[in-house]
Amino acid sequence: MQKCIVVSDSFKGTLSSKDICAIAARILTDIFPDCRMTAVPVADGGEGTVECFRDACGGTPVTISVRGPYNEPIRATYLRLNGRCAAVETASAAGLPIVGERKDPCRTTTYGVGQQIRHAVEHGCRELTLGLGGSATNDGGCGCASALGVRFLNARGEAFVPVGANLDQIASIDVSEARRLLNGVKITVMCDIDNPMHGPSGAACVFGPQKGADEAAVEFLDRQLKCLDLCIRRELGVDVSQIPGSGAAGAFGAGMLAFFGAELKPGIETVLDMVEFDRLLDGCDLVVTGEGRLDSQSLDGKVISGVARRAKQKHVPVVVIAGSVAEELENAPALNEIGVSAVFSINRRPQPFEVSREHSAENYEHCFRNILRLILAAEEIGRQESVRL
User: Fold this and answer.
1) Sheet with 340-345: strands ordered across
2) What is the pTM assigned to this prediction?
3) What's the gap between Cα 262 and its chain centre?
4) Less packed terminus of the chain by CB within 10 Å, N or C?
């Protein structure tokens, strides 16, 4: 084996994608010292996205002063790549870790995210990737839009920066300044959920509780998003409310679509495009991917399916290493159809997760080492057969 790519999602709560890549690199060097390994750390658009992109692509971190979720001054970092590209994560300026126990999606804002985007654009970036995961907000992206020049006016003609609690006060929307600023700029939004803007499966109802909204607040926020939807239809002439992913990050996805014409794209596809994965596959002998739990959702636009489908096009075998494997996928033809050659679980003993999670690193190492030893044995068998022939 001469070339191997490791591109794994994290094992939630146990191993980060970066941890997995480090383990794989060490074991691969032991067993195949002449094999070139390419590590592609994966993030889902939430906290850590910028760091993963930096590990995979290089780039220059840019730290600036912006407004935090409650308009407090904070420092946030985005990544510049090749001078013209930038990666921004919502969590860096409007994330749940920043608010801590002060959760209130009625009051929090995405304004600081827009400040980062504006800074990148004003310093020459023309391609932006925005990760929507981990937000503490429910403002439909209006805060971000305000920082980029969109003017929201109330019934008295007064401009204001909307938050989750006052979206119903928007009487008109002026996007002219923002359109001038972003002329010639392409924005790609990393989005791994397909929830709509509002309704029973929308932003507030599904994600509001984890941001601090009780039952009454969830209903209130959902009504506010419906008001924003109606205003967007009236003022901008577009209907984005039912587009899959429009409900991401407190309907930030809807705002990016409506105000800026951004493209919503599965996170893994964005990552693979950014690292030029199709080119990396040239001359590759094996791709190793995985996630904490392999189940039916893994086949629907997640890391494993995205990686396997691209590798299949280049006839590169794919091995999945997972924390656990759902019973329905143990011998599923669907895995082979998308390009997965084999699936392995790192669990070596019948232990509850609370116990096994403490041994995830050593279990992953043991599993990966045995897979490589099997490949080494297969290569030896091949050499012996060649000699006999």
Assistant:
1) 36-39, 3-6, 286-294, 318-325, 340-345
2) 0.85
3) 16
4) C
